[in-house]
Amino acid sequence: MEQYTKRSYRKRVRSSGLVTFEVAVQETDLQVSAEKRLDKETRDLILDARHQIETYIGAHPEFLTTLKPYPSDPYAPPLVREMIESTRRVGVGPMASVAGAIAQCVGEGLLGMTSQVIVENGGDLFLKVNRPVTIAVFAAPSPLSEKVGIVVSPEQMPLGVCSSSGTIGHSYSAGIANAGCVLASSAAFADGAATALCNMIQSQKGLSRIGPWAEKTQGVLGVLVVLGGKVASWGSIELVAL
Predict the structure, then answer these.
(1) Is residue 114 within 8 Å of 219, Cβ to Cβ?
(2) Which of 46, 49, 179, 189 has its CA 20 to 30 A from that of 206?
(3) For 149-158, what is each residue's pLDDT tens digit?
(4) Cα–Cα dist 16/141, whole Å
(5) What DSSP designation does 8 have?
(6) What are the φ and ψ backbone dihedral angles of 157, each rounded to 5 degrees?
(7) What is the mean pLDDT of the chain?
(8) Where are the beta strands (DSSP E) in the chain?
């Protein structure tokens, strides 16, 4: 499971009209914005998601460590099956989708108790609210870090917005991008796709590859890559200067 890191960026989150709270279970540390506090319900959903993943890893330890697509398993728990299929589509290991998958699982569960919800898990997001949301892109050490934002409209939601990086964070990346963001209807898929996207960026020339890659990758709605002082984007993604 993902390791814990202090998430100081959360102090800058503003979710007007919603109640924001944090719930942590072992390494899983979520920030949730909803119409009311749902701490217990969020904790229960985290425990269920972790149980599905941890139980499967106990019987299939290679699921935790492989960097390659994992074979389909119709007998796996539902969340594990989604992780497998989401990452198989983009050619990465199933744990590349774990943060987005848990965010989505919790967010979808909470939508039975609140009509609006934002779940953030280590920078990976599941969103369903009735107003536009601006997401700052953290891309250290790029000078553009937190200077570029992604605007998500209500019509695009529910939506997963997930990021990967070759220069920050504990997650493995084979590339050098400061940030690679993917928008998709599934946060689990967006998370795995962001890893695949960043793996592809081995140099500045790699920025020219994101359009052809996104066009042929079914399920990708929009992408953004920050590398040094350059930004490249594709698809249904609205950018704004912060």
Answers:
(1) no
(2) 189
(3) 999 999 999 9
(4) 29
(5) G
(6) -95, 155
(7) 92
(8) 19-25, 28-34, 117-121, 124-128, 133-136, 148-152, 159-164, 179-184, 222-227, 230-235, 238-241
Tokens of 53: 């993943």
CB 107 within 8 A of CB 187: yes
Instruction: Enumerate helices (H) and strands (E) in the chain, giving the number of each.
Output: 6, 11
Task: Please give the Cα distance from 195 to 95 (Å, whole number).
Answer: 10
Provide mean pLDDT across the span 148-168.
94
Q: ∠ CA 105-107-108 to the nearest 5 degrees?
A: 70
For residue 197, what are its two tokens?
């996207």
User: Tokens standing for 83?
Assistant: 């992780």
d(CA 130, CA 184): 18
Among candidate residues 186, 195, 192, 171, the one with its CA nearest the CA of residue 221: 186
Tell me which residue of 237, 109, 215 sits closest to 163, measured CA to CA.
237
Beta strands in 65-219 (DSSP E): 117-121, 124-128, 133-136, 148-152, 159-164, 179-184
CA distance 16 to 71: 43
Entry pTM: 0.91
Q: Which of 110, 64, 100 has the alpha carbon at shortest distance from 79?
A: 100
Q: Which residue has the tokens 């959360």?
A: 10
Beta strands 124-128 and 133-136 are unpaired
